[in-house]
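> call design_seq(struct)
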């Protein structure tokens, strides 16, 4: 029984090859976050573009 354990312990596992270098995975992740950051940045100040609608609704409520 001990010889089986020794044989199994000597067997070295082979790592699976990557389809890209590790730096490419990091680059893809950074690119995804940059694109998502640009999308979030593009929605800045959207509420102020329609401030005439919100301010007129508030002023109508104040007069009643």
């Amino acid at each position: 029984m001990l010889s089986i354990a020794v044989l199994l312990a000597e067997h070295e596992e082979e790592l699976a090859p990557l389809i890209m270098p590790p730096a490419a995975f990091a680059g893809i992740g950074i690119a995804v976050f940059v694109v998502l950051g640009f999308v979030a940045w593009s929605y800045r100040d959207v509420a102020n573009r329609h401030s005439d609608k919100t301010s007129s609704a508030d002023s109508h409520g104040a007069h009643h």
